[in-house]
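Cross-posted from the bioinformatics board.
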Amino acid sequence: MDLSTINPVVLIATLMVAATPILLAATGELVAEKSGVLNLGVEGMMITGAICGFAVAVETGSPFFGFIAAAIGGALLSLIFGVLTQILLANQVATGLALTLFGLGLSALLGQSYAGIKPPSTFKLDMPLISDIPVLGPILFNHDLMVYVSIGLVALVWAALKYSRIGLVVRAVGENHEAAHALGYKVVRIRLLAIMFGGACAGLGGAYLSLIRVPQWTEGMTAGAGWIALAIVVFGSWKPWRVLLGAYLFGGVTGLQLNLQVAGADIPVEYLSMAPYLITIIVLVIMSADKSRAALSAPASLGKVFHATS
Amino acid sequence: MFRLEKRPQPSQFWTLLTPIIAVVATMIAGGLLFALLGKAPIEAIRTIFWDPLFSEFAWYYRPQILIKAAPLILIGIGLSLGFRAGVWNIGAEGQFILGAIFGAGAGLAFYPADYWFIFPLMVIAGAFGGMLWALIPALLKTRFGTNEILVSLMLVYVAEHILSSVSFGLLKNPEGHGFPGSRNLQQYEAASNAEIIAGTGIHWGVIAALLAVIAAYVLLNRHIIGYQIRLTGQAPRAARFAGVRPNLLIIFCMGLSGALAGVAGMFEVAGPMGQISVDFNQGLGFTAIIVAFLGRLHPVGILFAGMLLALTSVGGDIAQSNLGLPAASIKAFQGMLLFFILASDVLSNFRVRIGTAETA
């Protein structure tokens, strides 16, 4: 094995790309969970976004429209979850699972004729002078637009949750829906919007996979990315910047693991490919072991059914 | 507008009726989906639900339904116990794979010897493998409070990589001309899970599934553990006062569902599939989640739900070859079924009143 082939600068640049789909999905899920909704359908929404984005980008030749379509597709799918859990008061865990199963089937169905096609390439930031700065250039100024969008989204969600009125209402609904309801906030409506925001973000994350990261459409291509996004929200203790950190750490593990495969490590490929999932488990254990903190940071009404009696 | 009034307890009548409503709704929505794909909707629905049972080739399809239903029922029964108690094991797919690997490994270790105990040993090994995989999230949950949903799901992906590792390495057929995959267990009589009565599709997995249904029924209705499971699901706090030890219950539910999924994997690898290969698993562990819910988490319900889902799988295969219906559409169809069952649950838990509430 030749570790010198692993260039730290390239590794950091690739980890940002590897982390972006998960970051997008996790940020969306963060908002949904902040409003008290546990949507386990992230995987399904991501893969639906992946195929919607891919199909529209191929048909229109524009990745921009692809991403728009992915966000709409993800949001529409999440609306099914919203109607079931918020209006028909179904169990959130089961409905989330259903969303994932349905999304995987639906996407495979939609994507039949799109396997093996190359999508139109996406705009990449490449500023002649700045991108050439050693070390900082490739890390900061040489990515596709969505990497910056995802970071911007984290900043936006952070600021909105912390400083805006909307953010305060979302948090109130998530912490105590009875009290929020008594204050006159439309709990169901706010949650539906939060769910759809989560769906749109997951859709964007999926489209990032199919349009930029891979870039290709294959059935089941998200390979657990949605579930990892869910884990990252726990890891980030429901705080946007920590979610970013978690996603990038995870991206680093994925990138390093791929680099090790290329460098010809003595570890069999299968064991290296397991690493991201195993590390997710370890991270979850570490986070949950500190019981007092985990209990404090989770929204108090997370996953609970809200039924207005008056 | 309508409003919902919570029933003091779930309506028996609607609990029994909702699965039927869900199936009919799925047929309609599925028909629309197939129409959108440019297929004749009624013909497609008939091919999926009717042809496997009553067409001229039904003699071939009927055994197939039993073969497909057995693992679904086995896994579904295990999952339902946990789901009732609020223990969410959704990694049955991984436990299924590990059970198959352990089971096949135990059998192949004796190859080509012929002892009577090989097959029973494989069953035990399969159960052990599945249980081992399920106990990881269970112990992490009880020891550290880690979310069992995410851990059990992550372990599915780990199991898939282990599967591909053993198909290329440990269990690879030494006479397989370099192809990945183990020896074919169907050709190794002592380890083969062959049909017990020729032409019926009944293999040991089907028998085990029936036994599991009966055992689960007895457990839930006649045994203290079943009572504790039901109590914990309905009122966790009350259960604690009644002396239920939640951690033990989590370990019991997860371990048992893992063992059942593992056994299902073992019967599958020794019978219908025949060998460990990279694409051995086909998502049965996830379909079983639908089975558990469609069967209302009730053993007898799961028996019927498993048969129904197996019917749609067989029917889906027929529709695929006869009508050119894409393989994926049946997955979407099954996902839809779960949506409808969850949506119609509202009818058994709530009264639907038309009109707005009069202000009190």
